[in-house]
Amino acid sequence: MIHCGKKHAVVACIFILASFLICSSNNPWLQNSVTRKIFLHPTTVPPVGHLCRGKPAQNAITPLNDNRTFIISPYFDDRESKVTRVIGIVHHQDVKQLYCWFCCQPDGKIYVAKAKIDVHSDRFGFPYGAADIVCLEPENCDPTHVAIHESPYGNIDQLPRFEIKNRKAEPFSVNFTVCISTMFGNYNNVLQFIQSMEMYKILGAQKVVIYKNNCSHLMEKILKFYVEEGTAEIIPWPIDSHLKVSSEWHFMQDGTHIGYYGQITALNDCVYRNMQRSKFVVLNDADEVILPFKHPDWNTMMSSLQEQHPGSGVFLFESHIFPKTVSTHVFNISSWNTVPGANILQHVHREPDRKTVFNPRKMIIDPRKVFQTSVHSVLRAYGDSVYVPMDVALMYHCRLPLQGNLPRESLIRDTTLWRYNSSLIRNVNEVLYQTIL
Do residues 393 and 301 touch, judged by C-beta distance below 8 A? Predict the structure, then answer.
């Protein structure tokens, strides 16, 4: 018991009581046993007219002071409870404690909540991986911004401040968004990129989100065209400014920090970025196109699949390699020969299945049913994942062969892509004439 009987001791008693309350707020018995969150009294009350303090985050990847945590973006998520889910990258061993500093409306007070750090299971051996930094939002608080800090104490003016996206549900602005991650290695496969973009549009996509690390000057012109057209959204992705990146998907004991230029983090950010604005999200690379067999486009295909699989929000399409090294003389368009990159219309022979090898898959998802995704499957989602049969659709993947020793007669001729040749040729020519020809 603390006794404050004399006037001259009042100030000292107040100080002792305040210290006691602050210490007790960190008592684990006061933490929620499921979410491991704590809520403190306001640590700062901003001046009138300054409801959200701190430095606005300017970049797609923001390092914290520990240089072990990198913040991409926070998103409101009320599917299970009212939380702010921050997509980030963390060192899976070193980062043990983080806090969300919420700026609450309408009173403008700052509330601090302890985060649950959920490092995604598909890290493939690398020390850094995608992570969800999840904080339960305080009651009677509708935070518009949040800062992330290693401590519940500090100066908020020194912390980067992030806008919390997805706070308001809105009608879908598009039916299909394609997420491409990540563009790196001075990417210059210009012709195939244009063909893929035009195929996405023919099949039903209205938006393509590209996480761009770097590309050639010529490719920059193409990206600028699609941005101005309204099709492409470019997310700068300078991950190699912060971490030693690998161009491999698995750790090679070579001192690198994260695989494939942080591809998994980019994919998860793209899912949440489009959660409120796109009915479906397509997760694939720029050299891949999901080709329907039974339907003319993605809209009719997905309507049929959803009717057959009500409640499912994840549809996986088997990848098949159409090697660049095997081509046909059909659709040898002379004006395209000066453009760097593969002409997918000339690559219509696919490698046969190998009995001992599992073909990877890419996905079309309902983003509102997905919590965490990897590259070839989701890690956590509502409902079942559907493996779409080959007679419905496959993923056309035009790249270097995986079975390079096979003779041409052992490959399977598959001209499904040619169903779209008239529209594709016309659209590609229009893009080339407006950009580089």
Answer: yes
CA gap 147, 163 in Å, rounded? 9
d(CA 346, CA 198): 16
* Tokens linked to 410: 């052992």
Angle at 200 between CA 199 and CA 203, to 5 degrees: 85
Residue 133, strand partner residues: 86, 117
Q: What class is the 33-163 domain?
A: mainly beta
Cβ-based neighbours of 272, under 8 Å, separated by 6 or more:
73, 75, 77, 85, 87, 165, 166, 367
pLDDT digits 0-9 by tens, 261-290:
999 999 999 999 999 999 999 999 999 999
Sign of CA dihedral 185, 190, 194, 200: negative
Token duo for residue 259: 């695989």
Domains 33-163 and 174-435 share a fold: no
Separation CA 424–CA 437 (nearest Å): 17
Question: Domain residues of the chain, as ranges?
Answer: 33-163, 174-435
Q: Are strands 393-399 and 314-323 parallel, antiparallel or unpaired?
A: parallel
As its CATH architecture, domain 174-435 has Alpha-Beta Complex (3.90)
Q: What is the pLDDT of residues 93-143, one digit of tens each?
A: 999 999 999 988 777 788 999 999 999 999 999 999 999 999 999 888 889
- Do 162 and 54 touch, CB atoms closer than 8 A? no
- Yes or no: say if 362 and 376 are a contact pair by the CB < 8 Å rule: yes
Q: For residue 314, give the amino acid letter.
A: V
Q: Can you give the pLDDT at residue 437?
A: 78
Specify which residues 364 forms β-bridges with: 282, 315
Q: Do the beta carbons of residue 149 and residue 101 sit within 8 Å? A: yes
What are 358-413's pLDDT values in tens digits?
A: 899 999 999 999 999 999 999 999 999 999 999 999 999 999 999 999 999 999 99
Residue type, 119: V
DSSP state string for 78-110: -SSSSEEEEEEEEETTT----EEEEE-TTT--E
Residue 21: its pLDDT value, please? 40
Which backbone phi and psi does 246 adopt, to 5 degrees?
A: -115, 145
